[in-house]
Amino acid sequence: MRRVARGRLLLSKAPSSMSASSKNVFLGVDIGTSGTKTIAIDAAGNLLAQASAAYPCHHPKPLWSEQDPADWRAATFKTIRAVVKKAELKPADVKAIGLSGQMHGSVFLDKSDDVIRPALLWNDQRTAAECDEIETRAGGRKKLIKLVANPALTGFQAPKILWLRNHEPRNFAKLQKVLLPKDYVRLHLTGERATEVSDASGTLLLDVVNRRWSKPLLSKLELDASLLPACYESEEVTGKLLPAVAKQLGLSTDCVVVGGAGDCAAGAVGNGVVQRGVVNSSLGTSGVVFCHSETPEYDPDGRLHTFCHAVRGKWHMMGVTLSAAGSLQWYADALCKTAGGKSESFDKLVAEAAETAVGADGLFFLPYLAGERTPHADPLARGAFIGLTQAHGRGELTRAVLEGVTYSLRDCLDIMTGLGVTAKEVRATGGGARSEFWRQLQADVFGKRVVSMQADEGPAFGVALLAAVGAGEYASIAEACSATVQTATESKPQAKPRRFYDRGVEVYRSLYQSLKDDYRRIAELTS
Ligand SMILES: Nc1ncnc2c1ncn2[C@@H]1O[C@H](COP(=O)(O)OP(=O)(O)O)[C@@H](O)[C@H]1O
Ligand SMILES: O=C(CO)[C@@H](O)[C@H](O)COP(=O)(O)O
Q1: Which of 35, 86, 137, 309 pairs with 79 at a CA distance of 20 to 30 A?
Q2: DSSP secondary structure string, 288-305?
Q3: Segments making up each domain of the chain, as ranges
């Protein structure tokens, strides 16, 4: 059923309603930090239906971050049922499902596959001591990078496993398996304990160059390899729906679940970033700047991650700022309640910001609400408004948040550029990229053309394409992308704001340098 050319043809002439027998539908599920989004697409990449469900994130202590895996499972089942209903799909229509999700999170399971404690997330900063332990056990930072291509960072999964061993030994004694968020959902869909290379890269336990678990590092950390699931390539089939699950979802037991991808690689596939020349910028809870690599490439200072791409035999580099659109979410929730007690809408806040001057009249925002990864790798960093005056109102505050987050993405982009990555265009994705104003701001801060995508479904679209490849609809991910991915709007850098932001980013950068010792003192004060 390989029908590459058909996919291309259908792109320009997509049927609005296919006959029951002709449907070949693929689902993409993205288990994000703020919620889960599921989409259904046809073979040409046309969106048939989408549904989303939100859930909370818990912060039991400052800079800690946890979620209940049961919320991801419930949201996935609910949204799959919703798209099946909305698109009026018959069980046999859905050929494959792709899973994507927030990376690095650790779901600790006991021998009955029950969750031992809430999951520790990608933006949880409690593991600084365990990162030091990993570097020491590996024989130093250089040796660690040789084994797994990356330095130890607090968000990654391996330090979380060591944290459990060091701080909750009774829970560690029960531990049989550690899964990533999307892979916990896979277990409930298929009964299989499996992951794939792009998400596995973010555990710090994958030999990224050879795309397999690093036995040498596992042994140095005294971790049993049986804790980890089987590791596949992203488009490979990892299992089929369990009979009871298929019945519950209105799908068939012939429906396969492919490896899928971590949300960064999935978003890149969804935006067609499967070759050099374009980079992806994502404004989700986190912010990510992502480039494709033909071979593993490294930032010698370890500020960018070197991970496997969701494309077989390819890699990527990315910089990750921990509170991107998440900063806007925090700001709306903490400081912008309406009279009815709800958070002000993002559209209203952004419209107010758009009315204010470039640079928010000298107000800066540092978006380090959850510490920071790129460029500072500083778990103690904190957020800040700097430069407030009595002339500032809500519009300037919002603008400062949007600008601060975008400066942080520029930090990531500039590191990449410094390593020789050239990009003629930035492809914008994530909830924040829905805003035309924020896309234009990116163009002005980056000094590059920023485009939005026709299928603005981010990682969910990327893994739906991986599902289509896994089911044999396309011969390769590159073919699936070239048949279905199209850009939509374009924002070009404007000369005056661009000049301002080139100077503004220097002030922004020096503010962190001025504050970093104080962050340490704040940590001592509050510990
Ligand atoms: N219209 C909008 N304008 C600006 N920002 C928006 C808009 N809609 C959503 N966002 C931002 O996008 C975030 C959600 O992005 P999303 O990519 O869904 O996150 P995640 O994948 O982390 O769950 C919201 O918290 C909000 O900050
Ligand atoms: O930590 C990373 C990537 O390294 C984050 O990108 C997470 O994967 C969370 O994604 P969002 O929920 O923000 O989309």
Answers
A1: 309
A2: EEEEEESS----TTS-SE
A3: 25-272+458-488
